[in-house]
Amino acid sequence: MSIIFHCEHCGRKIEAQDKVSGKWGKCPSCHNKIYVPALNDNERLKLSPLDKNEEQKEKQLMDETHKLTESILQERDIPEETGSTNEPAEPAPAEMSEEDLTNNIISYLRNMADSRLAEAEIKLKTITTHGSEAKGILDDIAVSEMLDAELADIPPQVLAGLIRKLRNKIN
């Protein structure tokens, strides 16, 4: 019969022969000094009693975690239903001159090139509301020989990629 116990240092399960019970040895895993418990046939290792309060607290926390997880998983962005009123589903885009829209597009491209994504996202919201007009301006920038001074230092391949991605976002 062998003695089975766990190393008090690394927690590895150790199986030792009866002849080493009650002696000191080395853990085969962490090589720390360990005591091999002595067991008689009538003697058993006794487990410490469970703390009922700790067990209840743990169960309560697990239940609360489960409920919160379920709640988060069930959350959805449900669009508000548009009733039978004559209101449009989305507000109409604010009036913007072609020059202002061009400046917004240039600013967006500059922000993207400089990795200022939060600022670019703000500009993107304005640009996407002016769909076809914004696409026309993007096409003009893409084929232009003379780039705006703000975009001149962006490599042509990078600028072309940014324009293409912005055009796809407008669709």
Explain the layout of strands and helices.
Layout: E1 2-6, E2 13-17, E3 24-26, E4 33-35, H1 52-74, H2 98-113, H3 117-128, H4 131-143, H5 156-170
Antiparallel strand pairs: 1-2, 3-4
Helix pairs in contact: 2-3, 2-4, 4-5
What does it look like?
The chain is mainly alpha-helical and 171 residues long. Helix content is 46%, strand content 9%. It has helices at 52-74, 98-113, 117-128, 131-143, 156-170; strands at residues 2-6, 13-17, 24-26, 33-35. The protein has a two-stranded antiparallel ribbon with strand order 1-2. Strand 3 (24-26) and strand 4 (33-35) form a beta hairpin. Helix 2 (98-113) packs antiparallel against helix 3 (117-128) and helix 2 (98-113) crosses helix 4 (131-143). The mean pLDDT is 80.
List keywords for this structure.
4 strands, 171 residues, elongated, mainly alpha, 9% strand
Question: How would you sum up this structure in a few lines?
Answer:
The chain is mainly alpha-helical and 171 residues long. It is built from five helices and four strands; from the N terminus they run ββββααααα.
- The residue-averaged pLDDT reads 80
Number of strands: 4
Helix coverage percent? 40-55%
Q: Main beta sheet: strand number and arrangement?
A: 2 strands, antiparallel
Q: Decide which structural class fits the backbone.
A: mainly alpha
Distance from first to last alpha carbon = 75 Å
* H-E order: EEEEHHHHH
| Rg over CA atoms | 35 Å
